[in-house]
Amino acid sequence: MDVEEKTSQTSTPISPATSLAPQYPSPAPSSGSKSQSLQPAGSAGINFFSLPREIREKIYERVLIVAHPIYLFQEPGSRVEAFAPDKPFRWLSLLYTDRLIHKEATPVLYGMNNFCLVDTTPQQIGLLQDFLKCIGFVNAGLLSHLCINFPVTENVGGQTGKVKLRDDSLHSLKLLRDQCTNLTILETFVHRKNSKGLVYADQDNSQFIQDGLSQINSQFKAISSLNKVIVRIHEGTPIPSVIEMMQGLGWVVLRGHRN
Questions:
Q1: Is residue 173 classed as helix, strand or coil in its secondary structure?
Q2: pLDDT at position 41, please?
């Protein structure tokens, strides 16, 4: 796949990239062929695939699960790249070692990690589209935890009292609904670049906010696999009534980067 992986054990410049979601590179095996043994010639050691599946799963989890988000970003005109702090160089090499390992381990990589889109502008939709395209439809269906910008609402044609989701926000949520069929946790970021009306709201526009949150919640509910929505507030302090509206919809409201 074309998604690049960048890792570093410190905050020093990011190291060279490898693929985040590699397709197993060797030719497809012929009919009746078996996966390679992963055992040195003449060795009396145990074949990796003789281990119980539960043990192999634990190995995949120890290697591939990250304790923090995997940050996704994209420079203009370039491929999607991933930054996984504190992971060793080429930590995804396991996925290249064997076709069966790739098949067994890929659901761990996508289904048990938190992928965070690093883009606070309306162009985040492009990052999301390219990421899902790069990893493919099957892997997109494995994703269970994503972080995106909080959806943005606006007045319809500038008319007061008529609210709709901004096109890029609506498109993003529809992509998640249609492609991320295993998504259970959706984390959204509130900051002044995408949600100024929320963090600096007052009682005068409370009806606009309530209508907007209701529309956003309807789109969340359309993602049938979703069972948890987290709203993480990075900048500003919404008035208590806004927090209460969000909590009333069943969303978890947090402040700061990680709690």
A1: helix
A2: 46
